[in-house]
């Protein structure tokens, strides 16, 4: 895209966006050492922490189940591997001047709050990227994880005007 700015009608600014598992992947890429500078990073309804070791209470009982799920789906079978693939642990480079938009639905899993909090909590990622200088915008739009994209225009219009 950078080599074809005239053809694309681009001014060269880059925006990285990912939805669901793409939000997880986009956040890992945006935080990687070789990533370019993005005008904005837009993460929609992603999973930003795979760590289970510090879970307490009832969650502690679920840790082996989530560990197995993360292992089967993502190949992260140890706590060290889960931490390495957790975007909230990967914010090590400076992010000053970048806008990070973290979008989540009102009820990601339609009334399963414990699982919503385990899978879709955004607090630790938002804190981590803010600590590295990013300006974080947490936005709630849409009813659930699957219908969120039907209401994405509520976010996209004002976002595009800001760019």
From TrEMBL:
Superkingdom per UniProt: Eukaryota
Protein name, per record: Uncharacterized protein
Taxonomic lineage of the native organism: Eukaryota, Sar, Alveolata, Dinophyceae, Peridiniales
């Amino acid at each position: 895209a950078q080599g074809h700015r005239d053809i694309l009608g681009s001014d060269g600014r880059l925006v990285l966006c990912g939805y669901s598992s793409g939000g997880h992947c986009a956040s890992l890429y945006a935080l990687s050492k070789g990533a370019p500078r993005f005008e904005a990073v837009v993460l929609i309804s992603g999973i930003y922490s795979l760590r289970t070791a510090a879970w307490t209470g009832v969650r502690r009982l679920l840790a082996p189940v989530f560990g197995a799920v993360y292992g089967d789906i993502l190949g992260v079978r140890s706590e060290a591997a889960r931490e390495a693939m957790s975007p909230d642990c990967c914010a090590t480079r400076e992010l000053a001047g970048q806008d990070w938009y973290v979008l989540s639905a009102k009820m990601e899993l339609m009334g399963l709050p414990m699982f919503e909090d385990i899978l879709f909590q955004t607090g630790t990622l938002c804190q981590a990227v803010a600590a590295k200088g990013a300006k974080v915008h947490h936005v709630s739009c849409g009813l659930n994880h699957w219908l969120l994209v039907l209401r994405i225009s509520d976010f996209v219009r004002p976002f595009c005007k800001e760019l």
